[in-house]
Model the fold of this input.
Amino acid sequence: MDKVNDVQRFLYKTNIGFGLSITGNGETVGEIEKDGIRVSSLRFWTDNPLSLIKEGRGYWKYSETPKGIFFETQYDYVTNFGRIGDIFDRLIFRPLMGWVTAWSFDALRIWLERKVHPKQILQTYLVYWLVCLAFSFVWIYQGLIPKLIYTHPQEINWLSSLIGDHNFNQSLVHLIGMLEVIFGLCWLLPFKKDKLFLFHILIIVLLTVSAGMASPSSFVHPFNPVVLNGLLIICTIIGLVSSSVHPSVENCKRQKEQFRKGV
Done:
């Protein structure tokens, strides 16, 4: 037996910063049940001149499968501001909305499956990207400043003590600098970084051992390789742990976006 709830109307308010907010109206058709499928539809609109979205609608569909609950959602909307609003929506707002939707529902999956609250998920997600940004800065800076741009003599002397060829080592420093810049850029790419964190720990350990072989006395200097590299390893472990509850838009099957004049 199908079950359809009455239409429910509501008011909504969205804060956009600087003390400004957007208010509007909406209605939901309620819940429909048929053959284990539940569908809820939503429509909303606003006359606020600050809102990019003039009117929108969508639906949520839950289906029971042998593998678990399959969730599907689709939404579309009409924009304000004419051609400028269409361009901004196509290039920035709509892709961002799609990404946020996929991310939020994967966060919901983690909440249901692993009992991790969305607030905690968001906190660990921010920690994860702060660690990635820190590593990106460290490796790009280390590659650009002391190796590619200025080629600090200490970098050459460090390699000379390991290899023994001064002229060859200067070229090798430049090559290492470029590799470090590339490695730093990798931390900004949106892919699962579990193996990269483990690889990072291995690199730090090897660099620490190499520093000890090249200059054992450096271990007693202020801010020596043991202290700094130990801190990097701890940060790497923090990033690795935070990635375990990291929502991913790749876990959602997304169709190619379609742009329409109306909804």
